Here is the input.
Amino acid sequence: MKKLIMIALIVSAGWAVHKPTFPEFDLNSDGQVTKSEFEEVRTKRMKQRADEGKLFKNAGEEHSFEQIDLNKDGWLSKDEFILHEKMHHGQSCITFG
Here is the structure.
């Protein structure tokens, strides 16, 4: 039984999608994510996934930087980033690549 559980855990780990974290997008570690940082990281993540042969369901449905920037100040705070992730990851959202 323990072997079966271990195999299931190993297999499921292979299917898990890495959810990006705020520090991965905050390239200069200043506590905010600019539109250029956001687009640079998203582009790199999408390319990496494509290089790994991973398919993109709903690729045209990612949210724009402007949609995530709720207070329209031109950058994403950690709170905005986390709120977006909580609201949309678990659905068919690939905003962060």
